[in-house]
UniProtKB/TrEMBL annotation:
The lineage of its organism: Bacteria, Pseudomonadati, Campylobacterota, Epsilonproteobacteria, Campylobacterales. Its cofactor is [4Fe-4S] cluster. GO terms for biological process: menaquinone biosynthetic process. S-adenosyl-L-methionine binds at residues 60, 166. PROSITE patterns: RADICAL_SAM. Gene3D superfamilies: Aldolase class I. This is Aminofutalosine synthase MqnE. The keyword Zinc does not apply. Keywords: 4Fe-4S, Iron, Iron-sulfur, Metal-binding, S-adenosyl-L-methionine. GO terms for molecular function: 4 iron, 4 sulfur cluster binding; 7,8-didemethyl-8-hydroxy-5-deazariboflavin synthase activity; metal ion binding; transferase activity, transferring alkyl or aryl (other than methyl) groups. Binds 1 [4Fe-4S] cluster. The cluster is coordinated with 3 cysteines and an exchangeable S-adenosyl-L-methionine. [4Fe-4S] cluster binds at residues 54, 58, 61. It comes from the Bacteria. Residues 40-278 form the Radical SAM core domain.
Amino acid sequence: MEEKIEDLSIAELSRLYDYDIFVLGDAADSIRETRYGKKVFFNINRHINPTNICADVCKFCAFSASRKNPNPYSMTIDDVLNQCREAYNRGAKEVHIVSAHHPDYDYKHYLDMFSTIKQALPNIHIKAMGGAEVDYLTRKFNFPLEKVLEDLLEAGVDSLPGGGAEIFDEKIRKKLCHGKADSARWFEVHRYWHSLGRMSNATMLFGHIESRHHRIDHILRLRKAQTSLERANNKEGGFNAFIPLLYQRLNNFLNVKTSPSGQEILKTIAIARILLPNIPHIKAYWASISFNLAIVAQEFGANDMDGTIENESIQSAAGAKSKNGVSLQEMISQIQNAGFIPVERDSLYNELQSYQEVS
């Protein structure tokens, strides 16, 4: 199968979408069940977005302050710490901190924010600063990429989220997010982070102006990058999970009229599982595709739901029903009701607790 995939063109692999959904689902589910059995992973986490004031104007974004979202805000470091502390006291193991590219924050602000959190809460995992955010810091402050990533690591950042990947095709990317880090730069950020022995995730924003061809190209670029990393044997860093993010249509400037069908979403997740044997986990991010469809996606190659989240601002700003997160009990019971075993994990997929259904 490995050799066959490598020998096929993007056009040929795009025909996977023409397969019956259940044929694709069976193939993807077989791969996930061989690896994980009936386990479905989730974590107890909190999403924090310190500001929506942004130097960039991405057409797909409903989160950043603009005439579509005329409610700018900016949190202090104490505000962020208080949210982290409250979440930790409720059982959160991870804080996921991503933000807009604030034009007025100085470099020290970022490092002080993460070091303050880590000093106060040394056991919480800080997942923060997507590839585009890191690139923004290098350009704004004229620092080498290596310095920025090493400084973030020293300040307490434990892993990078996968945001900013969008779609790697540059023609599409130019229409979506002109001025933000290009695809080569996104890979450069993650490549150096991996060389430090650290993990990150990878995303793909789909369901807007891209084609199936662009999705396949995106997935294959990630496959190639992970393969190159394995050959380099880089201190065990790499991509932990692939996360297909469904584009949300409301309150942005892209003006897309219709969303992909549930079948198209499930096919995309199944194809990702088939084409990415070297990325361990496929996440059905419930805040993007809805909780119910994310549960169904566990039978189409996904093996992870993300987490409880508590508060979600980016997807919900564009219309997703994810603002208030989901309770731990709801997460557990829904996974069990679908016939799976809920497994709480940490940010690096170490298993913390399995919730076997009591008979």
